[in-house]
Amino acid sequence: MKMTFRWYGEGDSIPLEYIKQIPNMSGVVTAVYDVPVGEVWPMDKILRLKSLCEEKGLEMEVIESVPVHEDIKLGKPTRDKYIDAYYQNIINLGKAGVKCICYNFMPVFDWLRTNLKTMDKDGSNSLSYNHEELMRLDPRNLHLPGWDESYTTDELNNLLDEYKGITKEKLFENLVYFLQEIMPACDETGINMAIHPDDPPWDMFGLPRIITSEESYKKLFEAVPNKHNGITFCTGSLGAGRFNDLVKMAKEYASMGRIGFAHIRQLRYSGELDFTEAGHLTSAGSLDIYAIVKALVEGGFDGYVRPDHGRNIWGEDGKPGYGLYDRALGAAYLNGLFEAIEKEIK
After folding, report:
1. What is the DSSP string of 312-335?
2. Which of 86, 198, 234, 274 is catalytic?
3. Which of 55, 31, 63, 28 is nearest to 189 (CA)?
4. Which residue in the list 199, 274, 308, 326 is annotated as catalytic?
5. Of the candidates 77, 246, 249, 278, which lies 20 to 30 Å from 10 by C-alpha distance?
6. What is the distance between the alpha carbons of residues 61 and 243, in angstroms, rounded to a whole number?
7. 332 near 22, Cβ under 8 Å?
8. What is the pLDDT of residue 150?
9. Residue in 69, 228, 280, 309 annotated catalytic
């Protein structure tokens, strides 16, 4: 296992030297953020990121993410040129020593929350999701935390129109086409593609979600059996769906060698579909983080881990879910779990 930490590049409020001070931190998970989706990342930008990390004693072996252009998801005639650019990005990242790319195939919205600062009784705040509140919103005039700045109203409406008629089956077919086209680049570089589950794992505003459950993964691995076609095992995204048995899934996919990356975070159910994100400790929420980590270790998982969304604590007011303090506490907790379980098993 390699412990990592999400870092948003030179614009991140958290300095690399602070991340390095977290015990057992091997590297950061980052990306090139100033190149439009669908274009090739220049080698100089990739190598600058790598150099900044290495100067602080940190690796850059995981990229999260190389975004997938909507034309690829839609299966439009233009998709091949965007797939060609993605292919080249894999080659370029391979040259820089990258081992894993986390990506998603969610139409339009790659995550949805209704409140980014839900207050807890201890004074901390975190992200939360209320399904009824979300369903009352008009997707064509959407004002939602974290998404108001993502698209103009016209851009969003045009995208929603384009997705009319795109079924789950068609979206999955487009995912398979994309993966089959880029697998040769993964074979050449050794890079593992790790698809992130849909967050949360159910359809939104009539848009299909296809990476949500055990059935999703079974279909994915059968359609593209290449060993480089893997997953990001995100406990929070999958755990939002009470139908998912995370312990069973963790052990099964780790045993198959399909988990290239693990996002480990906690949430607390507040309704059948509602949840609030919480501190990483098992007792802090509804997910058995200890049992999940134990299942990963028993399955032989040796990939990358990062503490996922944390709370804002101790007066920190950083990027929602991505402050320093609570994620550092989460990393320390996860380090302890992995060390104890690995020693116990050995």
Report:
1. B-TT---STT--SHHHHHHHHHHH
2. 234
3. 63
4. 308
5. 278
6. 32
7. yes
8. 67
9. 309
Q: Is residue 254 pLDDT above 60, yes or no?
A: yes
Task: Let me know if 280 is a catalytic residue.
Answer: no
Catalytic residue list contains 228: no
Please say if 53 is a catalytic residue. no
* Nearest to 66, CA basis, from 108, 44, 35: 35
Mean pLDDT in residue range 80-91: 98
Catalytic residue, from 86, 102, 253, 263: name it: 263
Known catalytic residue: 322? yes
Q: Catalytic pick from 69, 196, 228, 280?
A: 196
Query: Does the active-site annotation cover 263?
Result: yes
Tell me, yes or no, if 196 is annotated catalytic. yes
CATH of 2-345 given 3.40.50.300, 3.50.50.60, 3.20.20.150, 2.60.120.330:
3.20.20.150
**10 Å Cβ neighbour count for 8?**
15
Dihedrals φ, ψ of 16, to 5°?
-60, -35
pTM of the predicted model, to two decimals?
0.95
